[in-house]
Amino acid sequence: MGETPEDQITILLQSMRQGDVEARNRLAAAVYPELKRIAAKQMQHERLDHTLQPTALVHEAFIRLAGGSDWAMRNRGQFFAVASQVMRQILVDHARQYRSLKRGGGGAAVEVQEWHLITSEKPDVVIEVDRLLTRLEQLDERLAQVVVMRYFAGFAEDEIAQALGISVRTVKRDWSMARAWLRKELAAS
Questions:
Q1: Which of 57, 125, 128, 144 could form a disulfide with 39 if both were Cys (CB 3.0 to 4.6 A apart)?
Q2: 154: closest CA among 16, 12, 38, 27?
Q3: d(C-alpha 181, C-alpha 175), whole Å
Q4: Can you give the pLDDT at residue 112?
Q5: CA-CA distance, 87 to 94, in Å (whole number)?
Q6: Closest CA to 91 of 113, 122, 70, 65
């Protein structure tokens, strides 16, 4: 029986933790198509004139990931969850830079709908969603992880369950709770 892509990524992550420098190059090749898909998904929520493109977002994310010394991710799911968080942070940083250049613009209204967040093309929205996710993470880290993996990375419920080591039913419950919390917080802001 052959090695699955999931097994390959897990093995490469383990090799990197053990100091195998070449494993990083093999990992980059193995994860690039999925990182590109995640980046494209995240870029769907950005303004049309955004200067970052999905390929640049992937490269910046991998540079940040590779530059860190903490390769404690145990498997494919955890790797892509962390990569999604890094991409989100890059986009938030970019939105902050864009907003500081523009100097102005009030807050933007955001609402949570049944299956995803709807954002406008304004950097203030990206920053507001990030602020709320940071608050949610302080209240319940797993709920925030579910939102990031579901919304930003486009993971299916079973992929989230595997990455977090929880049941699909728990993922569904967490997603429902997180959406309700976000709706409430957005209505108050």
A1: 57
A2: 38
A3: 10
A4: 40
A5: 10
A6: 122
Quote the CA–CA distance of 167 and 184 in Å, as a whole number.
Answer: 26
Residue pLDDT, tens place only, 85-130: 888 888 888 777 766 655 554 444 443 433 334 344 455 666 777 7
For the whole prediction, is pTM greater than 0.90? no
- Other CB atoms within a 10 A radius of the CB of residue 114 amount to 5
Cα 164 from chain centroid (whole Å): 14
- Which pLDDT belongs to residue 117? 40
What is the chain's Cα-based Rg? 17
